[in-house]
């Protein structure tokens, strides 16, 4: 696993004829230091000639600062089987965060004036007047009968028969008209007979 170095300087040990660690990851501007811990000399030489530390004697160190991003392979020019890699990452610029707009002061909510409830007087339910049943007048059983006008009998002492003129009184209404007419006729006959008798005796 490559070693990610976050420090400004990363260390690589040369020991047992090997670079340890074999791969180092740094950022642009960081420095890598090689320290020879073997009893004989070594070098740190770039495969692309980006750097060459020259001979690093036993117990000594040599450093190189990387200024460009990329992956760099290197080796020991004395012992060519010794190989290593330096990975240089570009410096990332943090994205500027937009400045939040100023917070507007809270708007005071307008409070509506209290509404005065209008008191409506209670509605008086109309009182129903008791319905008076119409009084039906009892029919009068008594029929008013017009009494017949008294008939005036005029008797003329004459040898001829006495003429009696009777004027029956008008009868109104559907009362006992036929009975009254019959009674009047009988009265006329009786009066005529009496008058005739009186004339004969005189």
Structure description:
The strands form two sheets. A five-stranded mixed sheet has the order 1-4-9-8-6, with no helix packed on it. A four-stranded mixed sheet has the order 3-2-5-7, with no helix packed on it. It folds into two domains: 3-89, Cupredoxins -  blue copper proteins (Immunoglobulin-like), CATH 2.60.40; 148-202, no CATH class. With 202 residues, the chain is of the alpha/beta class. The chain is built from one helix and nine strands. The model is unreliable at 1-5 and 137-168 (pLDDT under 50).
Determine the structural class based on helices, strands and strand pairing: alpha/beta
Number of helices: 1
Tell me the helix content. 10-25%
What is the terminal separation in angstroms?
190 Å
Q: Would you kindly provide a brief summary of this structure?
A:
With about 200 residues, this protein is of the alpha/beta class. Helix content is about 10%, strand content about 20%.
What order do the helices and strands come in, and which of them pair?
Blueprint: E1 3-4, E2 9-14, E3 19-20, E4 23-27, E5 31-36, E6 45-46, E7 61-65, E8 70-75, E9 83-89, H1 177-201
Parallel strand pairs: 1-4, 2-5, 4-9
Antiparallel strand pairs: 2-3, 5-7, 6-8, 8-9
From the structure above, extract its key features:
202 residues; alpha/beta; Immunoglobulin-like; 2 domains; five-stranded mixed sheet; four-stranded mixed sheet; 20% strand
